[in-house]
Amino acid sequence: MKNPESNAPIDRRGAVFRIAGVALSFAGLTGFTGMRRSPPASPLPLPASRPWDDRFELAVDLELAQQGGFRAHRPYVAVWVEDATGRRVRTISLWVNTSGRGPRYIRELRRWFDGERSAEDAGAPDAFATTSSATRLPGRYQVTWNGRDDRGTAVPQGSYRVVVEAAREHGSYQLMQQQLNLAATPVAADLGSNEEIASARVEYRRKN
User: Fold this and answer.
1) Where are the alpha helices (DSSP H) in 79-140?
2) How is 134-145 classified by DSSP, letter by letter?
3) Which is it for the CA torsion 177, 144, 81, 75, positive or negative?
4) I want to staple 74 with a disulfide (CB 3.0 to 4.6 A). Which of 21, 70, 86, 135 is the partner?
5) Cα separation of 203 and 191, whole Å?
6) Do 202 and 191 touch, CB atoms closer than 8 A?
7) Residue 12 burial (CB < 10 Å; 0-12/13-18/19+)?
8) % helix / strand / coil in the chain, to the nearest 5?
9) Is the pTM of this model over 0.70?
10) What phi and psi, each to the nearest 5 degrees, are found at residue 110?
């Protein structure tokens, strides 16, 4: 057998090996292209949130501002906690006029009132009936939260927003809020002041 280009004789054994090599290369290529990649490993599950640490509590200090005028009305004040999604978790305190025509003005606490309607639609207890009390004179006050929601269930550690809302008849409307990470480390923040709230401070602390 001769090579048509070089007219040099080709060894038959070499030709057989060459043909076999081409066949093996083709078979290997076919096998490689037909291989399937292993599916990606499933992501590891996120760690579960840790439960509220009962050694801690959240304290909210408020100072209601002194108002000028003999007939100045006392402000309505709501203090509550929201989770990271903005859902109200717990109404800590609600100061309103609970007699006469007082309750009808509760809607002046706009954000709290909208949250209350949403909570009631979700089957939560009536926060007005369970947490409301009389309005307060100017002065310093403190309310605390034990990490329970409106149903009395302990919440997980994490990011929460503390909200203070105040509204006064013939006065102003004010809204103060502060995001805090409530976990295993104490943390505190000042909320500033306004026409109705002379000062406000939140502190996540160990219980005394």
Assistant:
1) 110-121, 127-131
2) ----SEEEEEEE
3) negative
4) 135
5) 11
6) yes
7) exposed
8) 20, 35, 40
9) yes
10) -60, -50
Question: What does the domain layout of the chain look like in residue ranges?
Answer: 1-35, 56-206
For residue 56, CA distances in Å to 22, 143, 203 come to 76, 14, 10
Q: What is the DSSP string of 4-45?
A: TTT--B--HHHHHHHHHHHHHHHHHHHHHHTPPPPPPPPPPP
Model pLDDT for residues 130-169, shown as the tens digit of each residue: 788 899 999 999 999 999 999 999 999 999 999 999 999 8
Q: pLDDT tens across 15-34, in order?
A: 444 544 544 343 443 443 44
Distances (CA, A) of 180 to 44, 81, 82, 205: 28, 10, 11, 12
Q: Do the Cβ atoms of 128 and 94 come closer than 8 Å? A: yes
Q: Which amino acid is at 33?
A: T
Nearest-Å Rg of the Cα atoms of the chain is: 36
